[in-house]
Design a protein that fits this description.
- The complex is a heterodimer.
- By secondary structure, chain A is α+β, with helices and mostly antiparallel strands.
- Chain A has one domain: Arc Repressor Mutant, subunit A (Orthogonal Bundle).
- Helix content of chain A is about 50%, strand content about 15%.
- Chain A has four helices and two strands.
- Chain A has helices at about 10-20, 25-35, 45-55, 80-100; strands at about 60-65, 75-80.
- In chain A, strands 1-2 form a two-stranded antiparallel sheet.
- Chain A is elongated and about 60 Å long.
- The mean pLDDT of chain A is about 85.
- The longest helix of chain B is centred in the middle third of the chain and has 38 residues, at about 425-460.
- By secondary structure, chain B is an alpha+beta fold.
- Chain B has 29 helices and 25 strands.
- Chain B is globular, with a radius of gyration of 38 Å.
- Classes of the chains: A alpha+beta, B alpha+beta.
- The interface between A and B is medium-sized, with 20 and 19 residues.
Chain lengths: ~110, ~900
Amino acid sequence: MKGTHLGEFEELILLTVAALHGEAYGLAIKKELEEQSGRKVTISAVHTACNRLEGKGFLTAEFGEKSEKRGGKRKKMYTVSLKGQQALLDTQHLRQRLWLRIPPGTFQIEWSW
Amino acid sequence: MMRILRWFCADIYLEEVEGDLYELFQEEVEEHGLKKARRRFFFTAIRYLKPFFFGKKDFTLQLEYHLTMLKHYLKIAFRQLRKQQAYSFINISGLAIAMACCIVVLVFVHDETSFDAYHPKAEDIYRLSIRSLEVGDQNDESLIAASPILWGPALKKDYPEVENFTRFIPRTSPDNPWEVTVGDRSFSEARILYTDPATLDMFNWPITNGDASTALSDPNTIVITEAMAEKYFRRGDPIGKVLTIDPKERDREGNLNGNTYDFTISAVMANVPERSHFRFDFLLPSSILNDVYGGDINGEADINPWYWRGLIGYTYLELKPGTDVDAFAAKFEAFQERYVGDATRSRGYYYEPDLQRLDQIYLDGERLGQMRSVGDKTYIYVFSLVALFILFLACINFMNLATARSAMRAKEVGLRKVVGAFRKQLVSQFLGESVVISFLAFSIAAVLAWLVLPIFYEYLGKELFIDYRREAPFLASLLILGVAVGILAGSYPAFFLSRFRPALVLKGVYGKTQKGALLRKGLVVFQFMISAFFIIMTITLFKQIRFMRNYDLGFDQERVVVLPPNVAQSLSSQYEAVRGELLADPRFLDVTMSSEVPGQQGRGGDLYVEKGADIESSFSLDETFVDYNFIDLFGLQMLAGEEFKQRNLEEENAEEQEVVAILNEAAVRQFGWASPQEAIGKQIVRDPNAKDWIARVIGVVKDFHSESLREEIGPKALIQMPRYGFMSIKLKTGDLQGGITAIQSTVEKFVKDVPFEYNFLDATFKEQYETEAQLSRVFTYISMLAIFIACLGLFGLATFTTARRIKEVGIRKTLGASVQDIVILLSKNFAFLILVAGLVAVPFAYLAAEKGLQYFAYSINNSVDTYVLAIFGALIIALITIAFQTIRAALSNPVESLRTE
């Protein structure tokens, strides 16, 4: 299925948006992702990815109310669209299938989920 | 920063980005403080300078879009060119010719201004040229490139400003070459200079073989250029080899004594670059001259004081950087007091220094005795101005034609706008078309220029030499210039065309605006004005030259053969015999000897004063020493007194010998005598300070022009005295060539091994006007060019005017107008424009012509008929140009033209 191929960063963004559940906007996504991943994320990268995802149809966006804290600008709130959800689940399923295919004892490190 | 962001960021992203960044900023201020937060903000914001945020959906899509449009525009541009071939041809060719002119001129100017620039010290090195002035007549000055050879070392000794000096002393010339032999190969060489060792320090002529520090120290050595090494030694190593020079020394009788001198080659130097005012192939150490001149040429020990004032070498001074040249030059008076004393003033002249900076020598103007002919600054100015003018004209043409054809493209513009093109896009489309046209024109121009340059240079008598590698940046800048011209010229039409309103245009209402028409007419008038100007100048110059050619010079120059000093002087000891032999031949009418001949040499003179008069009134009188029949041979007209009698001056008792002179009218006036009659019997003293001889005036001759008509006739004295240089022979009409051969065989009978040379007096005299003749040819070409371009413009304009009026013509024809009526009607407008152009040009041309004619002491009057002829000519040319269009319109079938909807 073309077009549903997600990049690594894009996947992370989508997951974060889902996790933030209604509170997902540029800055919040950035902070959450930095916290969870432990790596630096620039706000511009977040904006770029979010808008691109929106363009591809994986995210839907809505403008919130004006707030003084943002110098009078509204927040752009993202939610994962149906297409986006499907894409995420597809990706995750693919991962799990591949993991299940690994014979036990191949890795030196123990894992279980 | 935020403002910048807002400027280029697309609106759709802007709100989100602004808001988030603002919030982030606040947090960072709390966390890191204002300063740091600001900095981080800056860096973050920069990251938004991505194509993504410029509002394009997708970069690759953008690119594809642009490429497609580009292809489209190009296609349209070329289609346009092909559809309107005539118009395109006119435009391109006009522009190409003008560009070619500019390229040629730019290359020339670039070339001429880069002479001698390759020396690192060029800005601090000055040539000490001399300005020689007549005592008593400040206006009579000569500029000479050479200087006394003893000045250099003395200047360095006395003045700390002089860091270093060097001299070049020539003893060969194209007329007096020396023979150089290596082994069994001999050549005649004319470019041998003596120089000081300091030369290799001061100038940038690298030694390619040998030791630079000792190269010129030993008097038995010689330095040669690579070209000479090639010539005499082929591939071999010249260092240490011996070169023999025969300087063609003559003994007292004038015969060659055959002495030769050997020199060891101590070094080989790189060839003197083409772009220098220096010209030499061999350098000999100056220390040799100590023997030749009998003294120390560095002024330390005894040497004939004449060398303090004889101008026989070139001196170059290296001044300390930052020296005030004028202040330094002012010190020369004291310097001359100390070393030269009264020696020059007592002889009627004195020197002033004329310091020329090395890299400006070439363009600084003519000096006597230069190593090679120099360039002329006026040429540079004139050519540059002309090229600019022509380019200007062509650009005007371009603009005119482009806007004129707007009617044709109005529909296209309207349609494009309807389909959604922005004005910016239209502007760039038309601008692009202009660039394409100008690029094409430039390529043609480059080819044209490349063809014309050698001819141009040959015409000016210069050598063309382009080092493509070194000049690459210059050539590249020419290309950029060409494109820039295209953009400039095309900008106006581009903006004009894109302004059209679709609604009006598609309805077909759009025609020419009143404003536009006026501008166009004005431009054509301007073009023709310039053309008329050039035509007038050309005609004036032409008339002046014709005038000069036919002017009665006051002496008979026909069929006179002149033998120059190199030949005549060796004959002088046997003059009587030679003369007798020649006169025995019926072909020769007369033979005479003189120190100068009208049009050749000259400027021999001294201070004279009337005997008994105040020394203050002495003035410089030109002297020509002549044989008794000089006046007769040259057909000079006596006004008073009597001619010279034949005397054998050698035999006359020296004590009783009286010096007799015949003066010209100008001299009589200068002496203050009321009439030629009064002059007879007067005595004039030569060199009143030194008490030279006293001459008695026995006659007065009518003024005659011994120099070109550029000069006023100065006071002149013909003195009968055997100091000769030239032999002149008058031939009878008939076989001139046979006469020459006879003269040659006679001469060779008396003197061996002197290369026979001769010239015809009238031919040599005519050569004086070579410069003017050249100038007139140049002007002719320029005029033709200017007219051509103006006509191109006119032709294009006429095409579109008549096309527009075709319906009007049709109606008139149906109402009964004849072909003549139509032609007159259509031409009337243009004729009026041309007339106006001509009349406006007249005052400018008149002033310019006046100024130019002042340059000649004897000139034509600035007469009316020149101007009438010029304007008439311009009118005729213009009418012919538009004839094609007007006649075609007049012959058109009204049915056809009125049918167009």
